[in-house]
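The protein record minuted underneath.
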Amino acid sequence: MKKSILIVSLFLSILSDSLAQTSPFEKLGKEIQAEQLKNDVDVWMDWLHATHPDLSYTVKDIDHFYEEVERIKSGITAPMTVLEFWREISSLNSQLSDGHLIVGHITGGVVKDYLSKGGVFFPFEVVFDKGDLVIESKLAGEPTEFAGYTITRINNLPITDILNELTPRINGDSEKHRQVLLQRKFALLHMLFYGESKLYEVELRKGGDVKMIKANGISALPKFYHSATFDQVFSFEILDEKNAVVTVNEFGWENSKDYYDFMDSVFTTLTQRKIDHLIIDVRENGGGDDEYWMNGILKYIADQPYRWGSSYKKKILGRFRDPGEVIGTVIEGEIDTLIQPAPKLDNRFLGDVSVLVGPYTYSSAILFANTVQDYGFGRLVGEPTGGKSGQTGAIQFSSMPHSGLPMIAPRFYLVRPSGSSPLDPVKPDLMMEYDRLDSKKMLESILRK
């Protein structure tokens, strides 16, 4: 069984009829015959069952899910554009309840194409804070005087109505997980659902201060689509004579040597400076490859043999079949391979470890958190993860034959090393809320004096 779990940060949207007539996304505006779209639904369901090991693992009400699939299929009685079909089929994503299980997605290439044709977006980056949608910055990250204001209405629509339309159509393990995925593409999803707007009227609230502002749509690439530099993904800071923090926002990098060299230098510095307490921040880590945390972090802190999971269930696919396995069958088993601590290292870290987690911590980052907590390699601090502790993985990709909508599904799921509560989030040892607009403030509260 492969140890790597790939993360896909992919998001769905609902698309308005007016947008279908004016959309720069030509492929999404293509009209498809009713029988072809019904065939797309059948192809998706057949592929899903041929790929996924057990839909009932994440789908809370499997009977209702099948009823909804049939309702959507039977409701296709006339030709529809891909946008219109997407509007229907995307409503199933929240029922799938898995960030790795998706029907349809919007790629960065589509977004860039839209901007190249003069398109504009809602002008603010946003974050969810205690359930409210709060302005973080201008789109693409420039400062704004409205940072910290809660959005209450957009173009005269209550924000609750807007979120009720968008959030259920996002992939994600839970409502909390879908929120943190939605906030990263809010500007895009708002445009796709409600159409392009050159001018936005936005009602804001901050304490007792309520104001109405008008803001032009912005032709800028949202932060989520920017290509991050190494220093934006990985960073290290000595906080004081006893404490240091390393931030790892992804378990992966194009040149893996850069990452491993960086992590080795981190632990060398910790040893040379005689740091007592290392904080590892994975609050913004959506996953990647397990090898990165095994060989880049646990190599330096693990003091006993460990495994990255306990039991598993996997679907046997042709290209992953081992000798003796039958394609299409589902196998359940136990992971009996233990990873041994690295031989004596001059830069092995012997101090205390705190791992910061939050709602966006996902996929391979959840497996990392599970392992740290279950083996006592450190303590988890922060807020519960939006994702389940029992993660799916080995993601497969395909597309519907007529609409071309993407289909994504995992072929296995993995229970945490302790074997406990796979459908629950990972719960920190020390619960601590943090400021979504200034996440570094949390560090001050957990420093070891």
